[in-house]
From TrEMBL:
Highest rank taxon of the organism: Eukaryota
InterPro entries reported in the protein's UniProt record: Aur-like, Kinase-like_dom_sf, Prot_kinase_dom, Protein_kinase_ATP_BS, Ser/Thr_kinase_AS
Species for this entry: Tritrichomonas foetus
Protein name: CAMK family protein kinase
Residues that bind ATP: 39, 88-90, 137-138, 151
PROSITE patterns for the chain: PROTEIN_KINASE_ATP, PROTEIN_KINASE_DOM, PROTEIN_KINASE_ST
PANTHER family, per database record: SERINE/THREONINE-PROTEIN KINASE IAL-RELATED
Pfam families the record matches: Pkinase
CDD domains linked to this entry: STKc_AMPK-like
SMART domains from the UniProt entry: S_TKc
GO MF terms held by the record: ATP binding; protein serine/threonine kinase activity
Record bears the keyword Transport: no
Length: 428
């Protein structure tokens, strides 16, 4: 039996995961009955002053990152026994879980996940946040299988890509060579990490393996990953540029966005979910109505925000907002796709389409071919001047018949800090 927690109208339901210093529980908000993730850090676990400082730095970073592809911070609380961090709940597990259940992905599906990761990484770096522990199990999936980056416990702020850091952190399977060498590294090590994630999405395992930490490090520093023949030339080219051992010549996030393997159509559609900072301080009228129905004072939301407090009103508003963002993110993508279909039908009334579980929008030009994974349709472009011409159903085949053993990826997830060695995949 695990202890039950009840703080500020939130009660714990079940355990989600456990780390060295924290436990993560599924919680429910009594007023709205919406689910949350409740991270509990016990004060009796010999927390060092530095570790306590990192807890509040994590909270500060989470508060500064309001994005649909980053886990939403809802509130924090402290009592005599514990620190609490309340965040939105992503119910569909992690990218690692998804890989273990589906083996390697098609390039179209991998591209969809990777584009969301790329957009989130751009947003973090634009806001001068260096994650430092990007990996498959730190990327959760919401109810629509859109990503949510979590676990900012090792994150820090940076002023420029030239700023050097020397503390070794991250996970061995995903850490960049310059982190391992301990001679100073920059925020470009995040780019290496998303390269490792892309490799895992496309191939179903990590690029650098070994039977011991020493062997993994040896391979990471001096060997070249294997690139299976089923990969397209463009995907291999992007992987090589992401996994460039020299951080100075490693591809930038902006150049990743412009790479031929990335669908500009897909990037354009998905990036529409990035919030407009000018609108972030404007109260949502739909949420104002919901707050009124719950007999909560909406003016307190603004007051509590100005005072940086998280009372019942502001917390409830943020919780309702997180639910709406999940739905809106999916709707933005769906509506854009429907508008593409409508445009195609207008130009060619004979075009029809058939719904399937997984599909891809494919862009063909005289120069290159690009695919865009998306639900409910398949589009093949036959004219460079028009990105969509005909729609045909696609049979989505399952992956290879033998599922990936979780050991293939998880066996290499060794962290540098001793207090993180048992960090759970579902921790937030």
């Amino acid at each position: 039996m695990y202890p039950s927690y009840c703080i500020d109208g939130i009660h714990s339901l079940s355990k989600l995961g456990k780390g060295t210093f924290s436990k993560v529980f599924l919680g429910e908000h009594d007023l709205t009955h919406l689910k949350v993730a409740l991270k509990v850090i016990n004060k009796s676990t010999n927390l060092s002053p530095e570790r306590i400082k990192k807890i509040f730095e994590e909270i500060d970073i989470l508060q500064s990152l309001d994005h649909p592809f980053i886990i939403k911070f809802l509130k924090n609380h402290e009592d005599s026994e514990n620190y609490y961090i309340v965040q939105e709940y992503a119910p569909n597990g992690s990218i690692l879980d998804y890989l273990n259940n589906n083996t390697r992905l098609t390039e179209a599906m991998a591209r969809r996940f990777f584009t969301e990761i790329l957009i989130a990484a751009e947003f973090m770096h634009k806001n001068h946040v260096f994650h430092r522990d990007l990996k498959a199990e730190n990327i959760l999936l919401d109810e629509n299988n859109n990503i949510k980056i979590i676990d900012f416990g090792m994150s820090t702020h940076f002023n420029s890509y030239e700023a050097l850091f020397f503390d070794r952190c991250g996970s061995l399977g995903y850490a960049a060579p310059e982190v391992i060498k301990n001679k100073g590294y920059t925020a470009k090590s995040d780019i290496w990490s998303i390269g490792v994630i892309l490799y895992a999405l496309l191939i179903g395992e990590l690029p650098f393996k070994g039977n011991s930490d020493a062997e993994i490090i040896e391979n990471l520093l001096y060997s070249t990953p294997a690139y299976p023949t089923h990969l397209s030339a463009n995907s291999i080219d992007l992987l090589k540029k992401l996994l460039d051992k020299n951080p100075k010549s490693r591809i930038s996030l902006h150049s990743v966005k412009e790479h031929p393997w990335i669908s500009q159509t897909e990037y354009s559609i998905i990036s529409r979910v990035t919030p407009d900072t000018k609108l972030c301080n404007i109260l949502d009228k739909d949420l104002v109505v919901q707050m009124a129905m719950l007999n909560l004072d909406i003016t307190s939301v603004t007051t509590q925000k100005l005072e940086n407090k998280y009372g019942e009103e502001r917390f409830t508003y943020l919780l309702l907002q997180s639910k709406k963002i999940v739905d809106t993110t999916n709707n933005i993508i769906e509506c854009k796709i429907k508008s593409i279909i409508k445009e195609i039908r207008r130009s060619d009334p004979s075009v029809d389409h058939e719904k399937n579980h997984h599909h891809s929008i494919t862009y063909d030009s005289s120069l290159r071919k690009r695919e865009l994974s998306a639900p409910n349709l398949t589009v093949f472009d036959k004219r460079p001047s028009n990105p969509c011409v005909t729609i045909k159903p696609v049979i989505q085949r399952r992956g290879m018949p033998l599922p990936i053993s979780p050991r293939k990826i998880t066996r290499h997830l060794v962290k540098f800090h001793s207090y993180d060695k048992k960090e759970d995949n579902n921790s937030v």
